[in-house]
Amino acid sequence: MKANAGIVELFSEAEIAARVQVLGREVADDIGPDILLIAVLKGSFVFTADLMRALHRAEVRPQVDFMQLSSYGSGTQSKGRVEVVRDVGDPIEGRTVLLVDDILESGRTLSFAKQNLLSRGACEVRLCVLLDKPHKRVAGIEADFVGFTCPDHFVVGYGLDYAHYHRELPFIGVIEGD
Ligand code: 5GP
Ligand code: MG
Predict the structure, then answer these.
(1) pLDDT value at residue 70
(2) Number of the ligand 1 atom closest to the C-alpha atom of 40
(3) Residue partners of 152: CB distance under 8 A and separation at least 6
(4) Which residues pair with 146 in a beta bridge?
(5) Nearest ligand to the C-alpha of residue 104?
(6) Which helix (H) or strand (E) holds 172?
(7) Strand blocks (E) in 12-120
(8) Ligand 1: which residues within 6 Å by Cβ?
(9) Do 165 and 41 meet the contact criterion of CB atoms below 8 Å apart?
(10) Residue 25's closest CA among 58, 48, 52?
(11) Ligand 2 is a single-atom ion; what residues have CB below 5 A from it?
């Protein structure tokens, strides 16, 4: 049986690679070279690795740090409450932050993170997400940079998991039947 049996491809490896290169250029043109990139773990780690190399090609030299936030636990339902599981280590005060996440859905996670970083002295926090799922938004927040608009399905691959599986898939797909 193939390792990705039962998962229907939504965005191919080639499509993602092409879009991420363009996204790097869009970020570079808009916010300049001196940024602190903060990736929201765990889902964004593959996207972040590709995005930071796209930024390099666009002549940006980001500093990179991570924060881990709880959102969905191991299921597919948002818990509605966000907590910091692992905090940023780099100084935030006075920095232009590019906050990078895999998916913007309800907006709870990123509005919490953005407020948190602003309250700690970031001078600006811009949001970059690989996927925008606009159908279930509850917080009044939009991303500044979006890879793809995503249909209202639960997606996996390219860092995104279902119950801690499927992060290793090089494409983004939907579990069959969802
Ligand atoms: P929000 O707080 O915007 O509702 O939640 C966004 C977070 O929920 C994302 O960072 C991601 O971790 C998770 N999430 C939302 N939709 C999906 C999905 O389709 N697949 C996966 N794997 N995670 C999702
Ligand atoms: Mg997440």
Answers:
(1) 85
(2) 10
(3) 133, 135, 136
(4) 129
(5) 1
(6) strand 172-175
(7) 36-41, 63-70, 83-86, 96-104
(8) 43, 71-72, 78, 101-109, 133, 154-156, 160-162
(9) no
(10) 58
(11) 43
Query: 64: which strand partners?
Result: 37
- Confidence (pLDDT) at 1: 41
Q: What is the pLDDT of residue 77?
A: 54
Q: How far apart are CA 99 and CA 151, in angstroms?
A: 22
Specify the pLDDT at position 78: 56
Ligand nearest to the CA of 109: 1
**Domains in the chain: ranges and CATH:** 13-155 (3.40.50.2020)
Supply the residue whose CA is at minimum distance from atom 9 of ligand 1.
103
Nearest alpha carbon, ligand 1 atom 10: 103
Half-sphere exposure of residue 88: CA atoms within 13 angstroms, side-chain side: 22
CA dist., res. 150 & res. 105, Å (int): 10
CA of 41 to the centre of ligand 2 (A): 6
Q: Measure the CA–CA gap between 149 and 29, rounded to whole angstroms.
A: 21
Q: Which segments of the chain have a pLDDT < 70? A: 1-3, 71-80
| Distance in Å, CA 114 to ligand 1 centroid | 16
